[in-house]
Amino acid sequence: MILELADILIQPGREAEFDAAILRGVTEIIAHAEGFLGWSVHKGVENPQRYVLQIRWRSLDDHMEGFRKSADFTRWRDVVGPFFARAPQVEHFELAGSSQS
Amino acid sequence: MILELADILIQPGREAEFDAAILRGVTEIIAHAEGFLGWSVHKGVENPQRYVLQIRWRSLDDHMEGFRKSADFTRWRDVVGPFFARAPQVEHFELAGSSQS
């Protein structure tokens, strides 16, 4: 399992619109991708324009080669991209430990 | 529920030592704090010196007023602090949605 962590900054004042857009984009587009395992979206307390999207993928390739190079990635960016204040910062992680593992 | 997300960068070459230290610090110190609900630690794929520690707290005050101002916070920093390449970036988040909620 690989965790994609996307650090997102949106334009001020568009939080309510973005809340709906990101949930729609994840559930209607990303959730249908090959190798998709699960997701969460968190909103910033100190910075209400900051969102952290976490997607669990079966493998790095499922995200980078499968989803990122598919037409669905373009559809996803069409849904959420208009709200971005800058390009999201995306990196991948392996689980080192957790209270739920 | 509030999520604390700590973005940590450690000194190169000390990954194996830090893997053990952070798991020990979380399970032996943070996990006993008032209002602690759960944790995960992830290690960077693109950047092996990057770690993301996620702690779920009952409330923001449980972390910032309770744990941060306790002697246990000093003990925690004594365990993990020697590995840091810079001060960790810590912010708090509210759940907007997830496939497990």
What is the structure about, briefly put?
The first copy, chain A, is of the alpha+beta class and 101 residues long. Chain A contains 3 helices and 4 strands, in the order βαββααβ.
What can you tell me about this protein's structure?
The structure is a homodimer of 101-residue chains. With 101 residues, chain A is an alpha+beta fold. In chain A, 32% of the residues lie in helices and 35% in strands. A four-stranded antiparallel β-sheet of chain A has the order 2-3-1-4. The radius of gyration of chain A is 13 Å and the shape is globular. The model of chain A has no long low-confidence stretch (mean pLDDT 97). The interface between A and B is medium-sized, with 33 and 32 residues.
Shape of chain A: globular
| Most extensive protein-chain contact, per-chain counts | A-B, 33 and 32 residues
Please bin the fraction of helical residues of chain A: 25-40%
SSE string of chain A: EHEEHHE
CATH topology of chain A: Alpha-Beta Plaits
Task: Briefly note the structural class of the backbone of chain A.
Answer: alpha+beta
> Cα distance, first to last residue of chain A?
12 Å
User: Which range does the strand content of chain A fall in?
Assistant: 25-35%
Query: What average pLDDT do the residues of chain A reach?
Result: 97
The gyration radius over C-alpha positions of chain A equals 13 Å
CATH architecture of chain A: 2-Layer Sandwich
- Point out poorly predicted stretches of chain A: none
Which strands sit side by side, in order, in the main sheet of chain A? 2-3-1-4
